[in-house]
Design goal:
- It is a single chain.
- By secondary structure, this protein is mostly helical.
- The chain has one domain.
- The protein is 72% helix and 0% strand.
- The longest helix is centred in the C-terminal third of the chain and has 27 residues, at 77-103.
- It is elongated.
- The two termini are 13 Å apart.
Length: 106
């Protein structure tokens, strides 16, 4: 069941990222940094609930990054650019983790 949900999360995250790319992500240089995926490599029992906990944590962090990106701020533009890069990386990491969980049962 977790694999089905992970697949849906990967699809939705990819869709949202692609919709935001023209506005936020002008540079395509960022890649997933494997946050969370390394944990899954150490976790051999999908039934343990650990992958679900990790995925939930990453979803929560991604949600916070989205809220931050859409918050009006008087921060230095360099900080805003850095946060935008972090937002894209957050999307990519969540996609990578969700895909890894989804494919684990195959």
């Amino acid at each position: 069941m977790i694999q089905f949900h992970a697949d849906a999360i990967a699809i939705e995250t990819r869709t949202i990222r692609k919709e935001l790319e023209p506005v936020f992500f002008t540079s395509q240089g960022d890649q997933a940094d494997e946050t969370g995926v390394n944990f899954l490599n150490r976790e051999t029992d999908l039934g343990s609930g650990r992958p679900a906990e990790t995925l939930f944590k990453m979803i929560s962090e991604n949600h916070a990054a989205i809220l931050s990106a859409f918050t009006v701020s008087n921060k230095n533009p360099a900080v805003a650019v850095s946060e935008t890069r972090g937002l894209r990386r957050s999307f990519l990491n969540l996609e990578a983790m969700a895909t890894k969980i989804s494919n684990a049962g195959e």
